[in-house]
Each structure stands twice: as C-alpha cells, then as structure tokens.
Write a structure and sequence with these properties.
six-stranded mixed β-sheet, 12 strands, 434 Repressor (Amino-terminal Domain), single chain, 337 residues, Rossmann fold, alpha/beta
Length: 337
C-alpha cells in the first residue's frame, strides 16, 4: 500500500504539517524531530505524492501553457511549435511539467485562466499570443501568477514578455532591397487589427519613406497569415496598373500563396518580381524557388521564456521585456545574380 504523508506523521508521532515543514526545510523544529521524520522517510522509502509535494514546497512544479486569442494554429504550427519545443525542453530541465490550456470555455461561459491556474496550483504561465486577445489574459496578467508572454506585451507586476523586434523585421527587408537598387515594393500584411502585422506595416512604411521609396495604390494588401489569403492578395497586386519590383509578405505562408499566384500569371521569381516572406519556416528551403525570409530566433525565444519564467517564480529577477533580433535569410526568390 502506498504511504501517505499522514502515515509518515503517525509513525513519527507528529502532525502532517510537521512532516511538510521537515520536507520543506522550514519552521522552527527541533533537530530531534527533524531527524526522526527524516529517518522514517528514509526507512520507508516514502515518495510524496503531487499534492504532498505541493503542500511541502508551496509549489506544484506545473507551468500553464496558454494559446491565447485567435491564434489560428494547431500544435504543429511551423512557428509556435519551435518556440514551444524549446521552452518545453528547457523548462523540463528546470524541473517543471506543462499543463496546456485552450481558450475554450472553462466555466460560466467564459475563458477563466486565473481560476484554472488557482485550481491546478500552477507556479506560472507561458502565454503564446494570437490576435483578439480575450480579457481573461489581462486578468491573469494583473494577478500574482508569474507570466511570460510570447509576442504579447504584458505589464503585470509579475509578468515579462519576449518578442521579435518587429520593426527590425521590416527594416531588414526594405534596407536589403534598397541596397540592391529596388525602389518599388508591394506589401502583404496580416489582419488589419493584428498587433504584430501593424508594427511590421508601420515599420515598412517608415523605411520606405526614409529611402524615398513610394508605395503605389493597390500595392498594400492584407491577408490572414495563411496561403490562400496571400494568393488572393497577390492577384490584387497584379491587377494594378504597374507592377512592383519586389513583394514583401509578413508570413511565409502568405508568401507561398503569392508565389503560386505569380506562377499562374507566368511571372518568374526572382527574374520578374522578387519575393520575401517572414518567419523562415522549414518549408522555405524546399519551395521552388527557395524562399527568402526573415528568420525569427524561435529556439532562443523558447529558451528565454523558460529561464525568465523560472526566475519570476523564484523571485530572483524583476519583470522585464526582451526583444530578439531577426535575421534576413537571402535565398533564390530574392537573389540578384
């Protein structure tokens, strides 16, 4: 029969609370009491259950993983899965397990992340951001639960966040094209209300203006980050009176859709029109031509998330924000040979 903390307490002739204090190394207990309890634990080979460990250490060693808002992504999403895998590996080395939350209704018809955190006694949460973030995330951010956001700016007293420097994403594309005498560039953004897409759009406009590169009517289109929307956006661009020298899409999947539209209309990439995507997912290497893309350091973001959340949980660091530099990866779709 598996022993419980109450069994150990009875054998040692102490209360379960005293056993918890011995396990936790807390409380003003006599050396004799500590030795007696530890001896019984050693002799019986007692392994505390999850609830007993939580009682003893005041920690569950459980991390909540929240896919918040309208993320339009499954677990195999080419961007988020790399972040999550890196986070999972590092947070596991730090002694934590992960409990995954969806934003499906939890109780009373509302997404209540804070109640779920309290119910499972979570030590902290990693929040992966989509669009149209629900109010329940803001409630969690304002709470005492340590949180780290990925592509989500959190401001709570126990919250930090990590994001790619999205202004530099567009800067790297426009600068590269400018340095190769490209002056006419079209833009395919994500949803108009997308926080990340808006930053990339504003930065694109800023650097186009800075270099004196005009954006023509019809050359700015919007999609939903996925291939079909990139295909439709590219067709609208091709309906313009004049065509751009290059097209910049803020996701690789939309760039793949744009590439399909260009091929259907018998335009050669990169000879007729250059094409650049964003995220540098694995498929970029295998497309024909291979897709130039702005790489987000997804592994670094996941690893940083694990370390930052661990520090917040253990009160060894103050909440802060980290912006990770992107890198433009030039491939055939934007070559100048």
């Amino acid at each position: 029969m598996k022993l419980t903390i109450k069994d150990i307490a009875k054998m040692a002739n102490v209360s379960p609370g005293t056993v918890s204090k011995v396990m936790n190394g807390s409380g003003n207990l006599s050396l004799q009491t500590k030795n007696r309890v530890n001896q019984i634990i050693e002799e019986t080979g007692y392994q505390p259950t999850f609830s007993a460990k939580s009682l003893a250490t005041k920690k569950s060693n459980l991390i909540g993983l929240i896919f918040a808002g309208d993320i339009n992504a499954e677990m195999n999403h080419p961007v988020f899965n790399e972040v999550v895998n890196a986070f999972k590996n590092d947070v596991g080395k730090l002694g934590y397990d992960i409990l995954i939350f969806s934003n499906n209704q939890f109780r009373n018809g509302e997404e209540d992340y804070l109640s779920r955190c309290n119910h499972f006694q979570l030590d902290g949460c990693l929040i992966i951001a989509g669009d149209q973030i629900e109010e329940a995330v803001a409630e969690l951010d304002r709470s005492d639960v340590p949180c780290v956001g990925i592509d989500l700016e959190l401001s709570g007293q126990n919250s930090s966040y990590i994001t790619t420097d999205n202004r530099k994403v567009s800067e790297s594309v426009v600068t590269h094209l400018y340095l190769h005498q490209i002056r006419e560039v079209a833009f395919i953004g994500g949803p108009r209300d997308s926080f990340i897409s808006r930053i990339r759009r504003e930065s694109f406009q800023y650097y186009m203006d800075s270099f004196g590169m005009k954006i023509r009517d019809g050359w700015v289109q919007y999609g939903d980050y996925f291939e079909d929307s990139g295909y439709e956006a590219m067709k609208h661009i091709l309906d313009s009176e004049t065509l751009p020298e290059a097209v910049y899409a803020v996701s690789d999947k939309m760039a793949f859709g744009a590439l399909r539209a260009l091929k259907e209309h018998h335009y050669a990439v990169p000879d007729d029109i250059k094409l650049v995507g964003c995220d540098d997912i694995e498929a970029c290497v295998y497309s024909v031509p291979a897709l130039a893309s702005v790489r987000q350091d997804k592994e670094k973001m996941g690893k940083m998330g694990a370390q930052m959340l661990h520090d917040l949980i253990n009160d060894v660091a103050q909440p802060n924000s980290i912006k990770v530099d992107p890198e433009l990866i030039v491939r055939e779709s934007c070559s100048f040979d």
